[in-house]
Each structure stands twice: as C-alpha cells, then as structure tokens.
Amino acid sequence: MHPPRTLVVIEDGGLATMSAAQSTRRPERDAPVEPGILQAVRDTLLDQIDTALLDPVAPAALRDPAVLRVLRTVIGTQVEQGYGPLRTLPTDEATLLRLFHDALGWGPAQPYLDDERIQEVKIIGDLIMVQEEGGDFALVPERFSAARQALDRALLLAARLNVPLDRSRPQDTLPLAHGTRMHVTIPPCTPEDTALICIRRGRRNAWTLDDVLSRGACDPAVGDLLRLLVRAGSSFLIAGETGSGKTALLEAIVNSWPGQPHVVTIEDNALEINVRHPTWTRELVQSALERGAFGRAAKEVLRQTPSLVAPGETRAEEAGAILAVAVSGHAVVTTIHARSAARAIQRFADCAAMPGAYIYEGRRTNALEDACDNFHVVIHVQKRGGRRYISELLLLDGAAEYEGRLRPHTVRLAWAVPTAEGELRWQAAARAEANDLIWNGADQTPEALRQRLDLIRLNSAVRATATTRAAVDEAIARADAAVWAGSVEQALAILRRVWADRRDPRLVGAAQYALEADLELGGKLRAQAMEQAAILTTALRRRRWVAAHAAYATVQSDLALYAAYPPPGGWPELAAAIEVGLQRDTEAGAAIERSQTAFEQGRARDALDMLTAVATESLSAAVARNVLTARRNALCALERTGEIGPDAVRSIAAALSALERPDAEEL
After folding, report:
1. 344 near 350, Cβ under 8 Å?
2. How many other CB atoms are there within 10 angstroms of residue 116's CB atom?
3. Which of the residues 136, 336, 441, 449 has an alpha carbon 20 to 30 A from that of 16?
4. To 5 degrees, how large is the angle CA 518–CA 524–CA 526?
5. CA 51 – CA 82 distance, rounded (Å)
6. CB-based burial of residue 528 (10 Å sphere; 0-12 exposed, 13-18 middle, 19+ buried)?
C-alpha cells in the first residue's frame, strides 16, 4: 500500500475548474535522467518484458520483480563487459523502478495506477486527477514535466495494441487487460501536444452475484429475488448512468448462470467482462473502424447457438440485432444508459429502431413490443456517495396500448428507499422461496417468467432423482430410437442431459453411435475435439497444467465433443496427467511457503532443505521459477555467512536464466 497523499478535491470530472487548477504549484522532482539512458531502459524492457506487464494497471506485484530482474541482469552484463549506457546505474529498487516509470511506465501517474484503492486515473495535459473508490475526483500534486509525455505514452501504447490513434481518428478506447477501460483523446480534439486520458480500473477476478451483493448492492431478500431470476434464465436489461456498476452486475449475472452454459460476450474495443464458465466465446469488435461491427457480431450469434449472450453495452442501432437474438429464444444480458428502469426499455426500443438497425429500422412500435415480450427483467443501478446499489427491479409483462400509444406493462418487484439517516432500505412486492415467487398480495408474475419458473421446478425435480444405471440405460434406449427416427440432434440432447449428472462410459459409446449416423456433424465435432486435444497435449508438454485443465473441461462438458474423437490413450489418461501436474504444483507451492517462513526467521539452511526434494522439471514454469528463486535466496544467505561457496549460487542462477529463455516452456 502506498502512504496517504495530499489531494486537492475539485469535483466529479474536474474540467470546469481546470483553469484554476493550472495554477497549482508543481512539486519539485528529482534531476531528470539522460535521454540516452531512458531510451536504453525503454528498449531493454520492451525487448525482454512480457507485454501484458506493460499495461498501465498491470499488477505491480508481478511487473516490478520482472523489471528489476531484467534491468539488474543487463546492468551486471554491461559492468562485466566494461561498456554500455546502463553500466553506471545503481541497482537499488527505488532507482530502477523510477527508471521504469519514466522510461516506459506512466511517470508520476504510475504510483496511483499501482494503488488498488484508486478507481480511476485521469490525465489532462500534464495534470493528474484520481478518484479513490467511494470518493470524488481529486487533483494530486504530482505532474508530468511536460504535457507531451502523457501523449507520447498513449500513442506508444495504442501502437502496441494495434489501435490506429492519430489525427484522423483522435479518440478511441484501448483494449487493455485486467478489465481496465482506457479512453484516449488526442489532437486535434485536444490542444496541441496534449492528451486527455481516462483509465478506469477493472476487476481482475470474475465477479459473481455473491461478490456484488456482498458490497451492499441490495439487502439479502432482494438478492434472493435476483438469484431466482437468474436461475430462471431470464433476459436482463441493466440500466444506469456512467460508473454506476452496470458492467459489474452484468458480469455477476453471467457468472451466476446455472449449469454449464456456452456464453458469448460482445465488447466494443474493451476487455471489461470476465467469465468463469469454461465454454466462453469473447468477441471483440471495433465499431470505430467498421460501422455496424457490433450489430454484425450480434447477428452472427444467431448461428452460434449459445446458451447466453452478453453484449457489453447497447448504445445505438446494434439494439436491433440484440433484440433479434432475444426474440430467437436466447437469453440476453446487456446494459444501457438510462435514468430509470421504466425509461430503459423505452430507450432500448428507440435504439433498435434507429437508421441502420437490423430488422427494426423505423419500426419503433414493433421494437418496443418485442422488447417487452422477450426481456423479462429491467434493473436500474445507481451510485450514491461512492456506493453502487440496485435501485429498482422491474418485471416486464408485454406492452399494451394506452391513450393511442403503445406502453410497456411493468410490475415493480423491488426498490430502494433512502432513509432520513442517509441509509438505504429495500422494499419488495414479492419474495423468493426455493424456486417460487411468493407475492405479498395477488400473484403478478408475468406469463413468460411463470413458464421459466415452472421449467426450473421441473428440472429440479428431474435432478433430484438419482441418475442410476437404469436411468442411463433408459437414456441410451431413447437416444437409439431417436437415431433410427433420423433425429441425431435429439439423441445427443437426451444423452447430454444424463452425462451432466453421470460420466458413464456407456453414454460415450451411445453418442459415438449417434454421430456415425450424421457424418457431417460428426466430422465437425471431431475437428473441434482434435483442436482441443492438440491444445491440451501442447499444454501438457509445456507443463501448463491450468491451460490443459481448461481445454479438458471444454471437451468433457460436451458429451458429443468428448465422444467425437478419443485421443491416443483416451481422455481419462490425459485427465489423470493433468491432475498429477496440478497436484505437484500445489505441493511445491506449499513447500515454497514453508521455506519462505523459515527464511524470514533467519533459518536459511532449513529453508533450503525444505526445497531440496522438489523436482522442478515436473513443475509449471512459473512454479519452478519460484522454487529456484527461493533456493537462490537461501543459497545467497548461506554464501554470505561462509557456509557454502559461490559455485552453488551460480548453478541456481544458470537454471533460473534457462527458465527465462523464450523457449523455456518447450524444455
């Protein structure tokens, strides 16, 4: 954590008083570093650091050790050779990290970008504003020595991400990792040699509803209602203003979806949504480069048969294509800017009828009618005093004509009420009990939602019946009958349902028999399974156990895919190899923790002994590197006390150097 900083609070946005802020005294800074040294540092790091670590909000805990390791190695090499621009540099941590900040990082803004408490960093020319979670924007005393420095950094990052940011296209969002949104504006939209850069920190871990609700988004009763609506597979429209938490709630709903859905997310040049489900297709489009790209991606979803579609944000004519997806029976979760839940569905219909919209162009009445029939829930979220919360839950129950105009028929399910003490209390017209919606008065459940609730009650009853051998036999018999009737897809659907509860090898044989009756489908699935098998075996060879496990989960989750291609030795053999690798990594991690504790207590010999039996050649590269690093630290401590000679340290250093090679994972 960084120490508290002196902040000058302006207001949310800060632009109105920027002329006054310009007079803020510029704090004194250390003497500037020679340009040649900065260039050498920049070239070295660009050549040797993983590009993912060069994002503005890359985790400092991962980035800084890599920066220090690379720079110290290069400095040491140049000292030994007697030449090189970096040979005279000190190797202390503070100096080297400052060089990184000035050469390739974000200079005076980097400490704020590294601070997890900071929600957003805004750079306006040479000024830096920050917003800590729960607070307003504030002007910090640190400033760039020249406005051009921030502009150059933005242009360099855009070039690295292949985003054509120039005078002909001076505004865009850069697709950063870690769920971070970075929007950049350059000349001629800004004064010459200046930029407006807004960096909003994202979530590194994929949130579920539990994560959102634990932060006070609503009370437990409303949370139970929301979970029930998700279990029912409802389509959601999430509304609110900028920064109110729409995308976080969308992500939480997607990650709380029941079963093993195939999720398709669509984002416009941003990587904000993180999905936990193994079968996830992320589509990234650039509407600024291709007009209608977002809507085109939504249309293509109709041919991909996903379980759930999550377009990140509905802004314009792409609403027509998104609505077509919902009408086709797919569950949809999307967001839209609106000041109330009631206004959100109206605005969605406005967007769906815009010029260029798919199907609904110029047909607002039809768009509104279909939206009210095929979206089931509208959620409005707000931000108040730094707290993001659900302010209203509406159920949609079609549309009806009123005073000559079609209007949505809504049922208010839950809403937040501010108290005189400034707190929030939620009221609800119904409560969730198991898979039922119990109303306080007359039942107001919309028919479309009622059908979905009936379905989850039916599915729950089916799942409650143990999947016995007799149930497998029955499913195989029904599937065989479907194959004879010419319905291979129906046969596979019957077998998949049982496979979800019981991994019976006989189901694999039945699925293979069904695929033999449809050579085209069997060939398609075989190609997909072979591709996953190649990914899995490559990951195993490189000891990338987590990637191998993800590839195996993708295949195992779909019986037809699992049956379409049995790899050499079979899928179970590959699964066993993955489990062994994961277990070895876990055991090595525990040994590292015990060794680190001993090392911190001054017991270097014990720390070394705890790692002696750990075979690094069977570990993933990252874990092996951690083991060798811990061994090296212990050996260095023993060398300093004279207990061992330098040869042992050099041996470990050589092994670490080998792991740093680009082809290390192939060894």
Report:
1. no
2. 13
3. 336
4. 95
5. 30
6. middle
Which has more confidence, 653 or 87?
87
| Cα 158 from Cα 174, distance rounded (Å) | 7
SS3 call for 322: helix
Helix segments in 50-92, DSSP class H: 60-81
Strand runs labelled E in 260-376: 263-268, 280-285, 308-311, 331-337
Task: Taking each helix axis as running N to C, give the angle between helix 220-231 and helix 447-464, from 0 to 180 degrees, rounded to the nearest 10.
Answer: 80
Q: How far is CA 470 from CA 460, 465, 476, in A?
A: 19, 12, 10
CB 653: neighbour CB atoms within 10 A?
A: 16
pLDDT at 11 over 90: no
Tens-digit pLDDT profile for residues 645-657: 777 778 777 777 7
CB 241 within 8 A of CB 382: yes
Helix (H) or strand (E) holding 46: helix 35-48
- Looking only at the bridges linking them, the beta strands covering 8-9 and 137-139 are antiparallel
Minimum mean pLDDT range among 116-130, 452-466, 580-594, 609-623: 452-466
d(CA 376, CA 396): 5
The answer, yes or no, to whether residue 163 has pLDDT greater than 70, is yes
Strand ranges, E, within 105-225: 118-124, 127-132, 137-139, 171-175, 181-185, 196-200
Residue-wise burial string across 585-624, b where 16 or more C-beta atoms lie within 10 A, e elsewhere: beebeebbeebbebbeeebbeebbebbeebebeebbbebb
Please, is 504 exposed, middle or buried when counting C-beta atoms within 10 Å of its C-beta (0-12, 13-18, 19+)? Answer: buried
**408 CB-near residues (< 8 Å, 6+ apart):** 342, 345, 346, 368, 372, 396, 398, 399
**Predicted pLDDT of residue 606:** 84
- C-beta of residue 139 within 8 angstroms of C-beta of residue 22: no
Q: Over 408-462, what HEC string results?
A: EEEEEEEEEEECCCCCEEEEECEEEECCEEEECCCCCCCHHHHHHHHHHHHHHHH
Query: Residue 183 corresponds to which tokens in the numbers above?
Result: 């929007």
The Cα–Cα gap between 486 and 394 comes to: 44
- Name the nearest CA neighbour of 348 among 328, 374, 329, 330: 374
| φ/ψ of residue 127, rounded to 5 | -90, 150
Ramachandran region of residue 269, left (φ > 0), alpha (ψ -120 to 50) or beta?
A: left
Q: Which residue has 């429209």 as its token pair?
A: 237
Residues 6+ apart with CB under 8 A from 243: 200, 383
Q: How many residues does the chain have?
A: 667
Query: Secondary structure of 545-607 in the HEC alphabet?
Result: HHHHHHHHHHHHCCHHHHHHCCCCCCHHHHHHHHHHHHHHHHHHHHHHHHHHHHHHCCCHHHH
Which residue type sits at 100? Answer: F
Helix (H) or strand (E) holding 526: helix 519-541
Question: Which residues contact residue 291 at a Cβ distance below 8 angstroms, ignoring those fewer than 6 apart?
Answer: 356
Tell me if the bond preceding 188 is cis, omega within 30° of 0.
yes
DSSP class per residue in 462-489? HHHS---HHHHHHHHHHHHHHHHTT-HH
Instruction: Report, in angstroms and rounded to the nearest whole number, the Rg of the chain calculated over CA atoms.
Output: 29
Give pLDDT, residue 428: 95
Q: What tokens does 163 get?
A: 């985003």
Give yes or no for residue 36 having a pLDDT over 60: yes
